[in-house]
Structure formats: C-alpha cells, structure tokens
Design a protein that fits this description.
Domain AB hydrolase-1: 42-272
Largest sheet: 8 strands, mixed
CATH superfamily: Alpha/Beta hydrolase fold, catalytic domain
Radius of gyration: 17 Å
InterPro entries: AB_hydrolase, AB_hydrolase_1, AB_hydrolase_fold
Oligomer: single chain
Strand content: 15-25%
Helix content: 25-40%
Protein name: Alpha/beta hydrolase
Structural class: alpha/beta
GO molecular function: hydrolase activity
Pfam family, one: Abhydrolase_1
Length: 288
C-alpha cells in the first residue's frame, strides 16, 4: 500500500512512513507515532533501555497495526520528548500514564519490552482500571534474577561492539549462534528502513538515568503480582542474557492470568527474531 492509498483510506499501516506527533502534558512535550485502524482498544508500546521511536521493529509494529490502533512514544527526556529522564521505574511509569491521559484514552492494552515491561507492571498496578490486557516481553519482576547486572552487561557488550565495529544490540539482543547472528543483522537492517523524520538518539545522561532505574528495580523487594488481574502474555527468548529468561517463567507463575511463550535459539530480542510468530500470537491474545 503506498502513501496515497494509506492517506485516502485514512489508515496508516506503515511505521516507516508514519509522522511523529507531539502532545503536551505535565510540562513535557511527548513525541509519539500512531498507526492502524482508530477502532477498538488502542495498544500502547513501552520501549527498552536507550531506545527511541526508531528502535521498534517495523515488522512487529506493522503486524500489530493490521488489526489495532498502535501508539509508540518517547517517555520524558528521551528522543524528541522534552524534560529530564527520571532515575526510577516508578517515575517513568507516572510519566507514561500522563502521556496516555493526555491523548484522552480511557482504556488501553500495553506492550512493554525489557525496561518497558518493568514500567508497564507499575502502570497496571497504579491504575488498573485503565488497562485491558498486557504483553510483557524480555522483562522481569522487581528484584528479579540478574536484573541488577544489566549495567555491567551493557557496558561490557558496548565495548565488545566498539572493538568489533558492530551494534551492541547484536550481542545484547541475540544469541551468538548462526541463527542469532543472522537474525541480529536482519533486525538492525529493518531499524534503518525509515529514512526521513527519524527520532533524536538518546543522550548519555538519559541512558545513565535509565541504567540507574533498572539497577534499583533489580534490588527492589518483589511486588505482589497477584494484584494484576488482567490477562498477560509473557514472551522471551530461551537464552536472554540481559534479563535472564527465568524472570519470564517467574512472571508467568506469579501472574494470576498468564500465557507464556519462549522462542528457541533466541535471546533478549526473541520477539524481533521471531517477529512473524510473535505478531500472530499477540494478535490472537489481544483479540481473544
């Protein structure tokens, strides 16, 4: 479908071409992109450490937007959004709620990936009435296994990437098997498909604030996840180094209404490596 066809139908279905908009709330100009049919319950995407709008896999976003009104956004102090990035997951969750209310939305579904999944857990516990369903990918609960090591691992793989002229995500998100290496290269190529109107990269200051927030989350006492009554789809790769896969099993076990999917020979970016299977699973889960 070309841009004219999309515009004529009034439904933008390509993340590569969707314009970036802004909305003001709580002293912040939030940058966001939305696409897909403007019917039903919107799906809000909450993103990972160091990510801006351009870090969402277009195959995942476009696939979800075939059936859903999908909204991706930069949280406070990230990318094109103004303000200062907070140093706690709880403050990031409060900002994300401010953004959702600024759009006038009264019920949404959430997809939280990695750090975004931590933020999503707090959002749902803070305002349960706002959320219908929840997808938690490549993430873990407060106090979860190995989460406090994310800073150390991120620094190590960033240095490793610099020394080998690669993107750190090749190491952080994917396995070192032939399948993992290939999937990483394909994913990184897809992130470059948007050539105009790209987002601003995250600043080092914001990145370090996010690392502080994740570290603190990893040291927190476990939350009572039995209070989350929404249906939850938990997804990950079987060998996640960033947020170790046992955290996904722990989440699925502790959430009262959960579905678990683990992708083989995949790491932290399992939902991007297996994007076709993940989109099919997510659409089925959201439409059930």
């Amino acid at each position: 479908m070309d841009n004219r066809q999309e515009a004529r139908n009034g439904v933008v279905t390509s993340y590569k071409n969707v314009p970036t908009r802004t909305v003001s709330a709580g002293g912040v100009e939030f940058a966001y992109r939305e696409l897909g049919p403007k019917t039903g319950v919107p799906l809000v995407l909450v993103t990972h450490l160091a990510a801006v709008l351009d870090n969402w896999d277009p195959r995942v976003v476009d696939g979800l937007a075939t059936k859903h009104h999908v909204i991706a956004f930069d949280n406070r102090g990230v990318g094109a959004s103004t303000g200062t990035t907070p140093k706690t997951i709880q403050a990031m969750a409060a900002d994300a709620l401010t953004f959702i209310h600024a759009l006038g939305l009264t019920q949404v579904d959430l997809l939280g990936f990695s750090m975004g999944g931590m933020i999503a857990q707090v959002m749902v516990q803070s305002e349960p009435q706002l959320f219908r369903k929840l997808i938690l990918a490549g993430t873990g609960p407060a106090g979860g296994e190995g989460i406090k090591n994310v800073t150390k691992l991120s620094h190590f793989d960033t240095v490793r990437a610099l020394l080998t002229f690669q993107d750190p995500k090749q190491f952080l998100f994917f396995t070192r098997t032939p399948n993992g290496r290939r999937a990483g290269k394909e994913f990184l190529a897809r992130l470059k498909e948007r050539t105009t109107g790209r987002d601003k990269p995250i600043t080092l200051k914001s990145y370090f604030s996010q690392l502080d927030a994740i570290h603190t989350w990893g040291l927190e006492r476990p939350h009572d996840l039995s209070a989350i009554h929404q249906p939850v789809l938990v997804a990950n790769g079987e060998t996640d180094r960033m947020v170790p896969t046992p955290n996904s099993l722990d989440l699925a076990r502790r959430l009262p209404d959960s579905d678990l999917v683990i992708y083989p020979d995949a790491g932290h970016g399992g939902i991007f490596q297996f994007h076709a299977q993940f989109v099919a699973k997510a659409l089925d889960f959201l439409q059930r």
